[in-house]
Amino acid sequence: MTATTARTDETAETAEVRAHPLLEVRGLSVTFAAGSRRAVEGVDLTLARGEALAVVGTSGSGKSVTASALIGLLPGLGEVGGSVRFDGRELVGLPDREMSRIRGKRIGMVFQDPLAALTPVMSVGRQIEEAIRTHRRVPRAEARQRAVGLLDRVGIPDAARRARAYPHELSGGMRQRVAIAMALAGDPELLIADEPTSALDTTVQAQILDLLDRQRAERGCALLLITHDLGVVARCCDRVAVMRDGRLGAAGEVAALLSGPGAEGGEDGGAGGSAGGEGARGAGGAGSGGDLAHLLAATRRMEEAATGPRPTATRPATARPAPRPGDTPAEVPDRDPVPAGPPEVLRVEGLERHYAARRGRAVRAVDGVSLSLRQGRALALVGESGCGKTTTLHEILRLRAPAAGRIEVLGHDLASLAPSGRRELRHRMSVVFQDPAASLDPRMRVGEIVAEPLALRGATPAERGRRVEELLRLVELPGSVAEVRPARLSGGQRQRVAIARALSTGPELVLLDEPVSALDVPLRAGVMDLLDGLRARMGLSYVLVSHDIRLVRRSADDVAVMYLGRVVEAGPAGEVLGRPRHPYTRALVDASPSTDPARERERVVLHGDPLPSTGAGCSFRNRCPLFPVLDAPVQELCVRNAPLLREAEPGAAQLLACHGDLHKRHVPFLD
């Protein structure tokens, strides 16, 4: 058979499948109150068996409302119009009893927040058992066995034991895998995933996407993915449709829309011309095409900044080796004298924070971390959830003597700081938290929120008013915002208010705890551009906690990679993230999604979750892709001794804690 004949047969087969789609939506509309503007209007889409379709758009575009309307789970008094046909059967207007026989069994749903979707007082295994028995008449023992099998299938280690755990005892990635296992309990033909990876680390995100791909391949189920991340779309979807203001517009094949001529950006983005493409049609094509171009341009700005050249620092000392009990002097490199240049605003040496565990073994949240930061620079702490980066930030924020180690902030040793000095030091540093909706008092007006730190310092009402006006202008918000409450602002505006409050006292050191992870990609880019500009203009120093490699690469000067409470690699951001030496750093970088669907990458996907550190040996060895190919003596070293942080090369600014790299033979993984 010739290639031309094969393509013709494939085209004919595809046309036949799409002529009888699994899901067909025509003119879908959603209204929440009589006479109000429709939240969703005129949505048309089709989805074939085994196909993956992404619906993308910014917050408030109607993506999640559309997904909920498809399966009859709209909140409140939402009214649905139009037609939703699943396998030829009309779902709109179907009685709830009939809908319940389809929902869960033939259509599975994975929600954005698994902690909210799972019942906190039931073990995860019991919840999956209930899902199985709701749709299948099987004995409880068989349902329990199937539940354990589903947990094992979605990648939960030691599934029989984990089935007895409660949701709060699992990591975010494990909870999301449990939610997917529940959605698969009825062996559905269609899986709807609403932002399933938005709050997860890049490595866990890669695991979840691989898991969804595997379920499609093994079970032949279709996937409807709701997301704002075009990197996720490029990795796991066949087609994409763009949503804006409740209307579905630009649509087509992922490769064509993300790699075609219109993908270069611009107001229209060239994508609007695909509005009549197969599988999704609707009003607002040109506007949605421009929205796709806007999303793509913002994402690629992050990617280009993450891969572009950056100046190489000379010995920035972002993380320094710290001696451990039992180390000999020869094992601990001598500290270099502090070079001339900007003064240090932060120095952390041998910081530890251990917590007593319920079942005997202490949790080593921070285990001998050493860092330093100079004035005007940005230091990023990166790693998966549970690696200790936020705990390290909180230890600095407490402004108290640590349990072990030493912390200097703006030249003051916290162990010898008097209460009056601590109060004064708090005005010279500030923090921006991850979720502005939670960190801003909903009962206060924006002007009062921004002025509150000034009021604590005794500023007069006139001084506070002038400063609030100046700060709002600084973060590019109109002065009228001062009179509204946070609930009336968008997510990006609320985060700008949080930044204005953090800058109100003129701090020298700003701590940023995942400052944009809750925002859409265009908003992330805008807020980070604002923070970068403020740092350059005001000479601020940042400590940035993040798991977003693209964001760190574009905004940080130096980076420290943490794993289970220890720094495993550190140095200039361009060197550490551009040429990672530690296998964990390599996995973090490779897991970061790209918007180029044609890009072939040899990704390192980490399986499983971090195991608690015992203090002996390398804590990463159970997940390390390098460990199995090391020589036996080096493997023994990894098991017996925790690696120290050393220079990756003599005189290099890049520091590394890895026995395998320092003793490696020719290993292709590290080439």
Q: What would a concise description of this structure say?
A:
By secondary structure, this protein is α/β, with parallel strands linked by helices.
Could you tell me how far the N terminus lies from the C terminus, measured between alpha carbons in angstroms?
Answer: 41 Å
Number of strands: 23
Unreliable spans: 1-18, 261-288, 309-317, 321-339, 665-671
User: Class by helix and strand content?
Assistant: alpha/beta
* Radius of gyration from CA coordinates: 26 Å
Strand content: 15-25%
Describe the fold and architecture:
By secondary structure, the chain is of the alpha/beta class. Helix content is 37%, strand content 20%. An eight-stranded mixed beta sheet has the order 17-18-19-14-20-21-23-22, with helices on both faces. It has a six-stranded mixed beta sheet with strand order 6-7-8-3-9-10, with helices on both faces. A hairpin with a 2-residue loop joins strand 15 (404-409) and strand 16 (412-413). Helix 5 (124-135) packs parallel to helix 8 (172-183) and helix 9 (202-219) crosses helix 22 (583-591). The radius of gyration is 26 Å and the shape is globular. The two termini are 41 Å apart.
Topology:
Blueprint: H1 3-19, E1 23-31, E2 40-47, E3 52-56, H2 63-70, E4 79-86, E5 89-90, H3 96-102, E6 107-110, H4 114-117, H5 124-135, H6 140-153, H7 159-162, H8 172-183, E7 190-194, H9 202-219, E8 222-227, H10 230-236, E9 239-244, E10 247-253, H11 254-259, E11 280-281, H12 285-307, E12 344-355, E13 363-374, E14 378-382, H13 389-398, E15 404-409, E16 412-413, H14 419-427, E17 429-432, H15 436-439, H16 446-456, H17 461-474, H18 491-503, E18 509-513, H19 521-538, E19 541-546, H20 549-555, E20 558-563, E21 566-572, H21 573-578, H22 583-591, H23 632-640, E22 646-647, E23 655-656, H24 659-662
Parallel strand pairs: 3-8, 3-9, 6-7, 7-8, 14-19, 14-20, 17-18, 18-19
Antiparallel strand pairs: 1-2, 1-4, 2-11, 4-5, 9-10, 12-13, 12-15, 15-16, 20-21, 21-23, 22-23
